[in-house]
Design brief:
Layout: H1 2-15, H2 27-39, E1 43-47, E2 53-56, H3 58-64, H4 74-84, H5 95-102, E3 111-117, E4 123-130, E5 136-142, H6 144-165, H7 175-192, E6 196-203, H8 206-213, H9 215-232, E7 238-243, E8 246-252, H10 256-267, E9 286-292, H11 299-315, E10 321-324, E11 332-333
Parallel strand pairs: 9-10
Antiparallel strand pairs: 1-2, 1-5, 3-4, 4-5, 6-8, 6-9, 7-8, 10-11
């Protein structure tokens, strides 16, 4: 019982509040405080209840008050900045619209923080406090370096993401990405009841091109095929490299007959490629299997029909297109 009493006394002592700190704001302290605020790299300002500027340190004056002779009100300082290309960046250039948006929110909450960019390229984190008497204290810290780092990281992320989705040789969507696009197109087709066609395309006798002219020529053919197809396809079409000399073409919002016409337009007068300035031109052609999405298609089922149609085009002598209508029906030739 004695031990318990001693321990209880210790806890009682721990729970006793520490004496509150009372700042000693004598004249010297106030002078040092004002000097510190004035020289601070943060932009500090105080506006009174009528939005007249009552205090601004050197950093704030350098951002907002260059060459300004008043009246020193919040709205007139914004107008001065807009006229002279200083202060906050206004995306649409309409300072009056900015004022109309800002004034109703300026004292809507006791405290808020936000980031904003300035005409000189800097970014600041603004801490905005409403004092009990209606005055406004703003302390802004320069976060330009952080924003630049954020932009660099975002760009690096986007570049890495693009690289993971892109075939290095042709610049087309790689196998994984074009199949993801196919899944998305099938889902959109089901949701909107729009039409979707796909074509599996294979460059004919590609191994012979590599064996005869070398792999450099083979790479040139793949790049040339990509460039010519992009020139002849619609903006909404997607061409991706599945691997080797095989490509997958997604044709949204077209029915089967129109999809075939698009593929034949790609084929029409397909030019030869000259791998190097000192080499002979290489002529080549391609075979294609085209099919249209059915109501309950998934990736596997639609590619199965397109692949069967491609094999039929190869068997028919290459450099042609075959249509895959149904898994149980043999692919059919393209009507002339």
């Amino acid at each position: 019982m004695a031990w318990y009493g001693r321990q209880a006394g210790v806890f009682a002592d721990l729970q006793t509040p520490m004496s509150a700190f009372c700042p000693d704001l004598d004249d010297e302290t106030r002078r040092c405080l004002v000097e510190a605020l004035t020289k601070s790299g943060q932009a500090i300002s105080i506006y009174d209840a009528e939005d007249r500027l009552r205090y601004a340190n050197e950093t704030y004056r350098g951002i907002f008050l260059q060459g300004f002779e008043g009246p020193f009100t919040f709205t007139e300082i914004l107008r001065h900045g807009a006229r002279n290309g200083i202060g906050v960046r206004i995306d649409d250039g309409d300072v009056e619209a900015l004022i109309a948006r800002t004034l109703p929110r300026r004292r809507s909450v006791p405290r808020k923080s936000f980031e904003t960019d300035f005409r000189d390229g800097r970014w600041f984190w603004m801490d905005h406090t409403i004092l009990p008497n209606g005055w406004v204290l703003t302390v802004a810290a320069d976060i330009t370096a952080l924003k630049h780092n954020e932009k660099t990281l975002r760009q690096a992320h986007e570049e890495a993401l693009a690289a993971a989705r892109t075939d290095q040789l042709t610049g087309l969507p790689n196998r994984r990405h074009i199949l993801d696009l196919l899944d998305a197109a099938l889902a959109a087709d089901t949701a909107t009841r729009s039409s979707l066609c796909v074509a599996v395309i294979d460059i004919d006798k590609f191994k012979g091109i590599n064996d005869t002219h070398g792999h450099e020529a083979g790479d040139a053919v793949l790049q040339h095929f990509t460039r010519v197809c992009r020139e002849r396809l619609r903006v909404q079409d997607h061409l991706g490299r599945m691997g080797g000399e095989e490509f997958l073409l997604l044709l949204p919002e077209v029915r089967l007959n129109e999809a075939v016409r698009i593929v034949e337009r790609m084929r029409d007068g397909f030019p030869a490629v000259q791998p190097r300035s000192d080499s002979v031109a290489v002529s080549y052609a391609f075979s294609a299997g085209v099919t249209e999405a059915l109501p309950h298609d998934n990736r596997s089922s639609i590619l199965y029909r397109a692949d069967r149609a491609l094999y039929a085009a190869k068997a028919a002598g290459r450099n042609c297109t075959r249509i895959g209508f149904d898994p149980d029906v043999p692919p059919t030739p393209v009507s002339s």
